[in-house]
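Let's do one together. I've listed all components of the complex below, 414 residues spread over two lines.
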Amino acid sequence: MIKKLKENKFLVFVVLIYIGLFAINGEKAALSVKNSGYYIKEMLTIMPVVFLLTALIDTWIPQETIMDYLGDESGLKGSFISIFLGSISAGPIYAAFPVCKTLIKKGASISNIVVILSSWAVIKIPMLANEAKFLSPRFMAVRWVLTTIGIIIMGYIVSKMVKKEDIPMGGEKVEDGKVLIKEEYCIGCGVCVKLAPEYFKIENNKAIVMDNDDYIGKKANVIKAEEKCPTKAIEIGRVRGSKVDICKEIIEEG
Amino acid sequence: MDIFTKGLWVVTMLWFIVSMIKDKDRTLNSMKRSKKMMGNMLGQIIGILFLIGLLLTFIPPDAIKEYLGSSNTFLATIISAIMGSITLIPAFVAFPLVGSIVDMGASIVPAVAFLTTLTMVGFVTFNLERQEFGKKFAIARNGLSFIFAILIALAMGVIL
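Okay, and this is what the predicted structure of the assembly comes out as:
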């Protein structure tokens, strides 16, 4: 129970505001609930489909495809695909979060994720029609062009500021010094075997760790393999804040 | 439901049916993982929706109108951008509202800043974004979106 409350701190916080407001000003609280109604309806029409969509992307779209079209090397082509994907989508920005999270786990680049999220939020075809009607077609067109350019530049800047390691990927915690290969991300490319042949080998097209004794995760070539793994499938267990120690060791080992 | 949401439903349902026929186990397995991920977000999303209701009560669209039309364009732009970041009013309310004040002769710069931050910067969704994509990502994306919204607004003022 307490754990559940802790996990949903934000919801608890909002509920408390409502309780307080009901006590002070019931009318305003009731109005707030009524105002939320539209958004709740919107969520119910979009979230089930987003749920299915993330599962389907996870099942059927291979990692290589995502990396080709949306990965770090996808360049301007990747940006345009991202703009397109964001624009044809439906629903508010939070509906984009699960989809983007799935894409990022499958190898989409940070800049393209920013582009998808932003265009998902801003560029909506029904909304553009509305804008042309209430402002003017010219206003809509100029804003659309400027926003599209802005979003692509923003994606580029964010990718320079934020690295993949900064993004929480969830999943199990790996013990300090142990090495885990996330099978669902491994594409069996063999880079890790080339870098650290004494610890990795390929079996059934997936890399496996041969000898997961304590602290092999602190060997320099294993750390190198983790860095070079194109899909970030290798995870080394680290005690928080111990990265500095590992770096020191690498320097010492040469 | 607009046509794009309907389209998404149709395409996804068809894909889902094909997926279940082709490989039921894998599909169900992915759904389990998906469920776990969405479960983590659901509490936050419900909180966000009720927070929007609160904000709409205390910052009603009419109050926003006053700020957007203010005679000091520079100050109005900054305030409009902040207002747009905090509130989340539906597009079918936002466009007529902005349209009406532009028709009244107000500068378009604050109007554009408001429209752009309204959708691109998410104050209420910030916590969820931080949870899912990390603090650095959420700060960088929202911060830059705010700056770009103002730049886009200024550029629009020059062009139009």
